[in-house]
């Protein structure tokens, strides 16, 4: 029994090595045949036993695409091979490299008929790399930039609604980041820095769902600095603009708490008052 299991294991291991090893590119193929060979492998389901051999031989696909570009530099199939290389890395989940490939394609062929597709895929590649709001926002900003470029340059594309949806998501993510940093400063009682971050949302991301929260937090940060006039103005605007939001009720409560309070007299003004009284 053990010997049978051993033989089965060795057989499966051999099949795994054979099936997973990338193949060499046949010689004598023209540009079209090389490109179509890559696409045939790209569109295949991988075959084999689902639990062991599922997946595509991406290395072989990349070899075919590279060979087209090396042998037939000025062929239109070589240009398409550049674009498809980005698709391979995107499908593999290597989004950073995919973004590089798509951007290089756009630099070399800005007027290509597939430039709109490359632009959209470039934006998606950055979008797939977006992290949580407490992480580096570079990918979010890049995704937002390229989705905006796509919508601006290709307004008639059927992909515009999807791009606009992603634009909203990116802007919400950036707004959340500003609030996250503002809350960080607020916990450390650095209310001036917190107010600055909340103010960025109010000024630059007023179209996002985070706007009511940012306005309430900004008003609260002003109140904690004894800037009651600014606090009242911000909180009243919140109540009037978003009366049905939960932060409107919080703003009303905070307004009641600071009712009647006035900003403290500035130190310079206080010194002048004392000087006048002594004179």
List keywords for this structure.
single chain, 279 residues, mainly alpha, 13 helices, disordered N terminus
Describe this structure in words.
The chain has 279 residues and is mainly alpha-helical. It has helices at 2-20, 31-42, 58-71, 76-92, 95-108, 115-127, 138-153, 160-187, 191-204, 211-224, 228-241, 246-257, 267-278. The protein is elongated and about 90 Å long. Mean pLDDT is 86; it is low at 3-21 and 47-54.
Shape: elongated
Number of strand elements: 0
Radius of gyration: 30 Å
Task: Return the structural class.
Answer: mainly alpha
Q: Residue share in helices?
A: over 70%
Instruction: Give the DSSP E fraction (strand runs of 2 or more residues).
Output: under 5%
The biggest beta sheet reads:
none
> Could you report the average pLDDT, rounded to the nearest whole number?
86
Count of helix runs: 13
Q: How many angstroms does the end-to-end distance come to?
A: 110 Å
**Low-confidence segments, ≥5 residues, pLDDT <50?**
3-21, 47-54
- Provide the succession of SSEs: HHHHHHHHHHHHH
Task: Describe the structure concisely.
With 279 residues, this protein is mostly helical. It is built from 13 helices and no strands.
């Amino acid at each position: 029994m053990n010997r049978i299991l051993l033989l089965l294991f060795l057989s499966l291991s051999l099949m795994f090595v054979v099936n997973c090893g990338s193949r060499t590119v046949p010689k004598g193929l023209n540009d079209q045949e090389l490109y179509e060979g890559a696409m045939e492998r790209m569109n295949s389901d991988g075959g084999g036993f689902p639990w062991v051999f599922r997946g595509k031989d991406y290395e072989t696909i990349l070899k075919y695409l590279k060979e087209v570009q090396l042998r037939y530099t000025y062929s239109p199939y070589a240009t398409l091979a550049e674009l498809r290389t980005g698709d391979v890395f995107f499908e593999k989940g290597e989004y950073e490299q995919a973004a590089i490939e798509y951007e290089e394609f756009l630099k070399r062929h800005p007027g290509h008929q597939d430039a709109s597709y490359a632009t959209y895929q470039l934006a998606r590649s950055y979008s797939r790399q977006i992290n949580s709001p407490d992480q580096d926002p570079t990918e979010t900003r890049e995704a937002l930039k390229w989705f905006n470029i796509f919508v601006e340059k290709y307004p008639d594309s059927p992909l515009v609604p999807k791009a606009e949806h992603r634009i909203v998501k990116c802007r919400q993510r950036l707004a959340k980041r500003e609030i996250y940093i503002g809350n960080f400063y607020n916990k450390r009682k650095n209310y001036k820095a917190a107010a600055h971050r909340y103010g960025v949302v109010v000024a630059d991301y007023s179209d996002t769902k985070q706007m009511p929260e940012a306005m309430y937090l900004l008003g609260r940060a002003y109140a904690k600095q004894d800037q009651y006039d600014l606090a009242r103005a911000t909180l009243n605007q919140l109540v009037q603009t978003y009366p049905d939001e939960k932060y409107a009720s919080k703003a009303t409560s905070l307004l009641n708490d600071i009712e009647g309070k006035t900003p403290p007299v500035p130190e310079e003004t206080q010194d002048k008052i004392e000087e006048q009284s002594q004179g």
